[in-house]
Design goal:
Helix content: 25-40%
Strand content: 15-25%
CATH superfamily: Vaccinia Virus protein VP39
Order of helices and strands: HHEEEEHEHHEHHEH
Strand order of the largest sheet: 3-2-1-4-5-7-6
CATH topology: Rossmann fold
Number of domains: 1
CATH class: Alpha Beta
Length: 257
């Protein structure tokens, strides 16, 4: 039995946005949204910037932050009023002005992931948070990406940045990793029937393979070094004996009298 993998009926010219609208892409996206929604409600602030491969996904809907800005490199029908047109390598925001930045596969599908991460760090305020979501090379999907070199699906053109490399990039920028999650342990089969046959792999992966899901979600905080507050000086309490004359007792007073 040779089950064709996900690239069946896919061509090199198909866009990544169209692939995410497919059955397998929608299933993966739903798993990614569940992982992101575990983080967003606990992140507060005034401004959130979302940079995704598809600006129409609305990945930050569960965030409690009121001002959400979606970045799109080109005009698309259905964009929200708060969307702006720009390249993710040159964001039109001031330094230290954004509370949360969400990068959805933005580093996977670009020629300059370092610049995008630097721009996200530049606009992030001290103490702000960044969420980076990308494909995991240590997964079924990563193995498929390495083995298949002829017919490639749109998702296989991603960089598949490892967690260790991403951690090194963040460390150089002063970003502290707080949490890393992964999910979706099914192989990239196009057939839903075959994915159902591997349903036990999903249960086994969540229990025994915590680092080998199809994607990873990394939460990091921007920490900036500052001055160390001077502690209040504390002195040990000392008791001094003053040369006070002892009071005369009653018998001494009678003798004198």
């Amino acid at each position: 039995m040779n089950e064709p993998l996900e690239h069946t009926n896919q061509t090199e010219n198909d866009s990544l946005e169209q692939w995410f609208a497919s059955e397998l892409g929608t299933e993966l996206l739903d798993a990614q949204k569940r992982a992101i929604n575990r983080l967003l409600p606990s992140l507060f602030g005034y401004y959130l910037v979302e940079i995704a491969v598809n600006p129409l996904m609305q990945l930050s809907a569960e965030s409690l932050i009121g001002n959400k800005v979606v970045v799109s490199s080109e005009f698309k029908l259905g964009l929200s009023d708060s969307a702006i047109l720009c390249e993710p390598t040159e964001l039109p925001f001031e330094h230290n002005s954004v509370d949360v930045v969400l990068l959805h596969h933005t580093l996977d599908f670009t020629d300059n992931p370092h610049q995008i991460l630097r721009e996200a760090n530049r606009i992030l305020r001290p103490g702000g948070y960044i969420i980076v979501l990308g494909f995991n090379p240590n997964s079924w999907w990563g193995m498929r990406n390495k083995c298949c070199t002829k017919v490639r699906a749109p998702w296989q053109r991603g960089l598949f940045i490892s967690q260790r490399r991403l951690g090194d990039w963040m460390s150089l920028l002063g970003l502290t990793q707080l949490r890393c999650m992964t999910d979706y342990y099914l192989p990239p089969f196009a057939s839903k029937k075959w994915r159902q046959r591997f349903a036990k792999v999903q249960t086994f992966g969540r229990r025994s393979l915590p680092n080998n899901g199809a994607f990873t979600v990394t939460l990091a905080r921007k920490d900036v070094e500052g001055t160390t507050p001077v502690k209040k000086l504390q002195f040990a309490k000392k008791f001094y004996t003053l040369p006070v004359r002892k009071p005369a007792i009653r018998e001494q007073i009678r003798e004198r009298s």
